[in-house]
Design brief:
162 residues; alpha+beta; Mannose-Binding Protein A, Chain A; 2 domains; four-stranded antiparallel β-sheet; three-stranded antiparallel β-sheet; 3 helices
Length: 162
Amino acid sequence: MKEKIFQRQMLPQKNLVLVLGMVIFFCVAGTVQAAQQPQPPPRFQEVEGSGGSIVRDNNTGLEWQRCPHGQSWTGASCSGTTWTGNWQDATRVTASAGFRLPTIDEMRTLAPYDQGVFPGSGWFWSSSPVGKYDARVLSFDSGRSDILGKLGNYRARLVRGG
């Protein structure tokens, strides 16, 4: 009789050990499986052959000049004098190498702005006109857009694709 009582008392302990063992196994297996999952590609990748001066946005497929127009990428930052000009001039200087002024919506896809990927601050022209005398601009400092006169002097960050 004592043996039966002993066996009944041990049965819940065996079940507890079995359940704990299974929990530990599945936790470890889940951790190993999570570690083996492929990591998503980074949002921005340097375009091959550009020396890092052009980055591809993997979310939109657009290719952006990393530095404001007029500056050059040194491998760590932008150097040189940033071009500034009115909206009409900005639409003209961008025709080289298949680049163009981005629309305001394309510029907004870059938010939040990573200064490591896109150095340069201030207002930047978009290709989005507002009536005859104004156009949309975007601040890379704040991410805010505004409507300013086309005769103002602002920077240009160029894009291709899309």
